[in-house]
Amino acid sequence: MDIYRNAPPRDRLLRSAAAVWAADPSASLDVVAQAAGVGRATLHRHFASRADLMRLAALDGIAALAAALEAADVPSRPPAEALDVLIDVLVPFGERLHFLLVTGDLIGDPEVAAAEASVDAPIRRVLEAAAAAGVVRGAGPSAWRFRVLEALLYAAWTGVAAGELARLDAPGLVRDAFRRGFGVDAPGTPTETP
Known about the structure:
The chain is mainly α. It has one domain (2-181): Tetracycline Repressor, domain 2, CATH 1.10.357.10. It has ten helices and no strands. The N and C termini lie far apart (46 Å). Mean pLDDT is 89; it is low at 186-194.
């Protein structure tokens, strides 16, 4: 969290909450405040409750990811390049979004679900374009490619958080695993799109 020390307290709290809850979904608000370098009173001046902070940390992280995807202009790139850039953009967001996968507190929140869906849509389009262009196999449902990418991102995020993977190596590892898993020349795999 040291890179955020000069950020306003609210921003530090949002980012710290995401990182703390990714490591320990049951961590208290005291732990979050300490990680952000603020007191609990400051936390409560910005957020009414744990649920409020968790929801806003999720929305903040998703909005930042949407902005990063837009800035990278991923969908306008050729399919192979778009896939690589997509993964390069997604992997670093583990620190801000990983907690959504390890805590069930926001399941069913309509605003979080809508925000996630708005980010998932361009990701799905890139994966579909990669399959249509033959960058990856088009066999099987497109939802499967999306879920496999999610699983690889989760593996990268947890590996980086645990110190098992170098942060800068993680995107290449995800790209390699995804491309090899859906490679167009993988032996013994169907090559037709149903």
